[in-house]
Hints:
The chain is an alpha+beta fold.
Amino acid sequence: MEINILLFATIKDIVGTNKITLKVEDGATLHDVKQAMSGKFPDAEANIKASLASINREYAFDSDEIREGDEVAFFPPVSGGSGGASAPEIFKLATEPINHDDIIHSITTSETGAVCLFSGFVRGKTDKVGHLPRTEVLEYEAYEPMAIAKMKQVADEIRGQWDKVQGIAIIQRIGALNVGQNTILIACSSAHRDDGCFEAARYGIDRLKEIVPVWKKEISPDGQTWIEGDYTPNSTDRAE
Length: 240
């Protein structure tokens, strides 16, 4: 059978395209697909072996069987809608700057008394290992349909732990961003400040950086590099 495979970040750069087709035997597993890809693209073998994978926009593992028509994707570990009126939710991959006031307004109700908001920005200098010391631009890329689905999963996990949280917003910028521009926003509202909105927002940003398939490339006068995470999802990270 012939399957379509989506590629992201470093793997995409090495192979030279973001989508390939591959012939595999009926009943092939994800491990078989990795082997076939490594044979076809030997320069990317190490990255393929270290990559995460999904089947039909859910995390997949070596023993999972591939069926004709499945959407398969390979990507490195993650770098990084609306609900009803009683529990407003926003999940978005944004190409324009995030208006914090608009988002706060969108996730508050007449019962809201507190909002905790985390907003990330492009940093121009860093001494963190694995990063370029100077950055002029961050280029964000996402596996978009899966990213939105995983944002919704993060919100579900938040509600499972902090049932007094009212509204939730999870927004990730994509594309090229300059130093000082906002990159990501996690906001949670509740009736009172001690109803979990602080803890939920912190959990949201940490969890997003584990399971939402978004990556960033640092671009500077010294060169450019994809920043990849070190968290490896397991079967418990699949949506219930």
